[in-house]
Amino acid sequence: MNIDWEQLAQIEELKSYFEKDEKHFKQQVTDYVEEWEKISAEDLDKLAFLRALEITNGCTQWAYRRQDKECLSLEKTRECMQLSMSSIKNKKIPLANGEFITFCPEIEKLIDTGRDLYIEAFKRNIAKKTQEFYALSTAQFLIYGKPRMDEAFTKIKDNYLQYFGEFYINRGINYVRPYLVQ
Q1: Distance (Å, whole) CA 84 – CA 60
Q2: What beta strand segments (E) does the chain contain?
Protein backbone atom coordinates (compact mmCIF):
# COMPACT_ATOMS: atom_id res chain seq x y z
CA MET A 1 0.00 0.00 0.00
CA ASN A 2 1.29 3.44 -0.94
CA ILE A 3 0.73 5.82 1.99
CA ASP A 4 0.86 9.59 1.57
CA TRP A 5 2.60 10.37 4.86
CA GLU A 6 2.85 14.08 4.06
CA GLN A 7 -0.94 14.28 3.66
CA LEU A 8 -1.49 12.40 6.93
CA ALA A 9 0.99 14.65 8.76
CA GLN A 10 -1.26 17.63 7.93
CA ILE A 11 -4.28 16.17 9.77
CA GLU A 12 -4.81 18.10 12.99
CA GLU A 13 -5.30 15.00 15.18
CA LEU A 14 -2.09 13.43 13.87
CA LYS A 15 0.30 16.40 13.74
CA SER A 16 1.74 15.97 17.23
CA TYR A 17 2.52 12.29 16.63
CA PHE A 18 4.44 13.11 13.48
CA GLU A 19 6.28 15.91 15.29
CA LYS A 20 7.14 13.91 18.44
CA ASP A 21 8.27 10.62 16.94
CA GLU A 22 7.44 10.32 13.27
CA LYS A 23 9.28 7.03 12.80
CA HIS A 24 7.46 5.30 15.67
CA PHE A 25 4.03 6.58 14.64
CA LYS A 26 4.56 5.54 11.02
CA GLN A 27 5.58 2.08 12.23
CA GLN A 28 2.46 1.80 14.37
CA VAL A 29 0.26 2.73 11.39
CA THR A 30 2.16 0.35 9.10
CA ASP A 31 1.83 -2.53 11.58
CA TYR A 32 -1.93 -2.02 11.80
CA VAL A 33 -2.22 -1.73 8.00
CA GLU A 34 -0.46 -5.08 7.63
CA GLU A 35 -2.80 -6.66 10.18
CA TRP A 36 -5.96 -5.19 8.66
CA GLU A 37 -5.00 -6.05 5.06
CA LYS A 38 -5.72 -9.68 5.97
CA ILE A 39 -9.41 -9.00 6.65
CA SER A 40 -11.92 -10.06 3.99
CA ALA A 41 -13.65 -7.45 1.84
CA GLU A 42 -17.04 -8.41 3.31
CA ASP A 43 -15.81 -7.90 6.87
CA LEU A 44 -14.13 -4.62 5.89
CA ASP A 45 -17.45 -3.40 4.49
CA LYS A 46 -19.15 -4.15 7.81
CA LEU A 47 -16.35 -2.60 9.85
CA ALA A 48 -16.34 0.54 7.70
CA PHE A 49 -20.07 0.89 8.30
CA LEU A 50 -19.56 0.53 12.06
CA ARG A 51 -16.73 3.09 11.91
CA ALA A 52 -18.91 5.54 9.96
CA LEU A 53 -21.57 5.12 12.63
CA GLU A 54 -19.04 5.74 15.42
CA ILE A 55 -17.66 8.84 13.73
CA THR A 56 -21.06 10.34 13.00
CA ASN A 57 -22.09 9.72 16.59
CA GLY A 58 -18.83 11.28 17.80
CA CYS A 59 -19.60 14.42 15.83
CA THR A 60 -23.00 14.72 17.49
CA GLN A 61 -21.59 14.06 20.97
CA TRP A 62 -18.84 16.67 20.67
CA ALA A 63 -21.27 19.24 19.29
CA TYR A 64 -23.55 18.68 22.26
CA ARG A 65 -20.70 18.90 24.79
CA ARG A 66 -19.57 22.19 23.23
CA GLN A 67 -23.20 23.31 22.90
CA ASP A 68 -22.68 24.18 19.23
CA LYS A 69 -25.61 26.12 17.81
CA GLU A 70 -26.41 23.14 15.53
CA CYS A 71 -26.26 20.56 18.33
CA LEU A 72 -29.08 18.09 18.64
CA SER A 73 -31.36 18.05 21.66
CA LEU A 74 -30.22 16.08 24.70
CA GLU A 75 -32.81 13.42 23.87
CA LYS A 76 -31.65 13.04 20.23
CA THR A 77 -27.98 13.11 21.28
CA ARG A 78 -28.66 10.26 23.71
CA GLU A 79 -30.50 8.29 21.01
CA CYS A 80 -27.48 8.63 18.73
CA MET A 81 -25.12 7.55 21.49
CA GLN A 82 -27.32 4.58 22.38
CA LEU A 83 -27.43 3.43 18.75
CA SER A 84 -23.68 3.67 18.34
CA MET A 85 -22.66 2.30 21.74
CA SER A 86 -25.05 -0.64 21.64
CA SER A 87 -23.86 -1.52 18.12
CA ILE A 88 -20.25 -1.57 19.32
CA LYS A 89 -20.93 -3.34 22.60
CA ASN A 90 -23.27 -5.97 21.13
CA LYS A 91 -21.39 -6.25 17.81
CA LYS A 92 -24.76 -6.08 16.11
CA ILE A 93 -25.88 -3.08 14.05
CA PRO A 94 -29.64 -2.62 13.61
CA LEU A 95 -30.78 -1.50 10.17
CA ALA A 96 -33.90 0.48 9.30
CA ASN A 97 -35.46 -2.56 7.60
CA GLY A 98 -35.32 -4.60 10.83
CA GLU A 99 -32.29 -6.65 9.81
CA PHE A 100 -28.94 -6.63 11.61
CA ILE A 101 -25.32 -6.54 10.55
CA THR A 102 -23.36 -9.03 12.65
CA PHE A 103 -19.71 -10.01 12.88
CA CYS A 104 -17.81 -13.28 13.13
CA PRO A 105 -15.96 -14.00 16.42
CA GLU A 106 -12.56 -12.96 15.00
CA ILE A 107 -13.90 -9.56 13.95
CA GLU A 108 -15.76 -9.20 17.26
CA LYS A 109 -12.37 -9.45 19.00
CA LEU A 110 -11.01 -6.66 16.79
CA ILE A 111 -14.01 -4.50 17.70
CA ASP A 112 -13.40 -5.17 21.40
CA THR A 113 -9.71 -4.33 21.02
CA GLY A 114 -10.58 -1.02 19.36
CA ARG A 115 -13.17 -0.24 22.02
CA ASP A 116 -10.73 -1.02 24.83
CA LEU A 117 -8.10 1.16 23.18
CA TYR A 118 -10.61 4.01 22.87
CA ILE A 119 -11.50 3.73 26.57
CA GLU A 120 -7.85 3.73 27.64
CA ALA A 121 -7.09 6.68 25.37
CA PHE A 122 -10.07 8.94 25.90
CA LYS A 123 -11.74 7.86 29.14
CA ARG A 124 -8.58 7.05 31.11
CA ASN A 125 -6.45 9.66 29.28
CA ILE A 126 -3.42 7.43 28.71
CA ALA A 127 -1.33 9.38 26.19
CA LYS A 128 0.44 6.32 24.77
CA LYS A 129 -2.92 4.71 24.12
CA THR A 130 -4.22 7.86 22.44
CA GLN A 131 -1.36 7.70 19.94
CA GLU A 132 -2.01 4.00 19.39
CA PHE A 133 -5.72 4.69 18.87
CA TYR A 134 -4.92 7.26 16.18
CA ALA A 135 -2.47 4.84 14.54
CA LEU A 136 -5.18 2.16 14.44
CA SER A 137 -7.81 4.60 13.24
CA THR A 138 -5.52 5.90 10.49
CA ALA A 139 -4.72 2.37 9.35
CA GLN A 140 -8.42 1.52 9.27
CA PHE A 141 -9.20 4.48 7.04
CA LEU A 142 -6.31 3.60 4.73
CA ILE A 143 -7.52 0.01 4.45
CA TYR A 144 -11.18 0.94 4.01
CA GLY A 145 -10.39 3.50 1.32
CA LYS A 146 -12.61 6.21 -0.10
CA PRO A 147 -15.08 4.04 -2.10
CA ARG A 148 -15.83 1.82 0.91
CA MET A 149 -16.19 4.78 3.28
CA ASP A 150 -18.42 6.59 0.78
CA GLU A 151 -20.64 3.52 0.66
CA ALA A 152 -20.63 3.28 4.47
CA PHE A 153 -21.80 6.87 4.84
CA THR A 154 -24.46 6.32 2.17
CA LYS A 155 -25.74 3.45 4.34
CA ILE A 156 -25.63 5.73 7.37
CA LYS A 157 -27.87 8.19 5.50
CA ASP A 158 -30.18 5.41 4.33
CA ASN A 159 -30.57 3.94 7.82
CA TYR A 160 -30.05 6.72 10.35
CA LEU A 161 -30.90 10.06 8.76
CA GLN A 162 -33.68 10.46 11.35
CA TYR A 163 -31.08 10.08 14.15
CA PHE A 164 -28.21 12.28 12.99
CA GLY A 165 -29.68 14.45 10.26
CA GLU A 166 -27.84 15.44 7.11
CA PHE A 167 -25.69 17.97 8.99
CA TYR A 168 -23.94 15.47 11.28
CA ILE A 169 -23.63 12.78 8.65
CA ASN A 170 -21.81 15.35 6.52
CA ARG A 171 -19.66 16.25 9.52
CA GLY A 172 -18.66 12.60 9.76
CA ILE A 173 -17.83 12.51 6.06
CA ASN A 174 -15.75 15.67 6.40
CA TYR A 175 -13.89 14.24 9.41
CA VAL A 176 -12.83 11.16 7.44
CA ARG A 177 -12.07 12.89 4.14
CA PRO A 178 -8.43 13.94 4.87
CA TYR A 179 -7.49 10.35 5.71
CA LEU A 180 -8.78 9.07 2.38
CA VAL A 181 -6.73 11.28 0.02
CA GLN A 182 -3.92 9.23 -1.47
Answers
A1: 11
A2: 92-94, 100-102
Structure confidence by residue, pLDDT tens digits, 30-70 = 999 999 999 999 999 999 999 999 999 999 999 999 999 99
Phi, psi for residue 14 in degrees, rounded to 5 = -105, -15
pTM: 0.94
Q: Do β-strands 92-94 and 100-102 pair in parallel, antiparallel, or remain unpaired?
A: antiparallel
Q: Which residues contact 178 (CB under 8 A, 6 or more apart)?
A: 7, 10, 11
Nearest to 110 by CA among 82, 140, 80: 140
The Cα 127–Cα 61 span in angstroms is: 21
Determine contact, residues 46/107, Cβ cutoff 8 Å: yes
CA–CA gap between residue 1 and residue 168 (Å, rounded): 31
- Looking at this protein, which amino acid is placed at residue 89? K
For residue range 154-180, list pLDDT tens digits in order.
999 999 999 999 999 999 999 999 999
| C-beta of residue 95 within 8 angstroms of C-beta of residue 159 | yes
Distance from chain centroid for Cα 160: 16
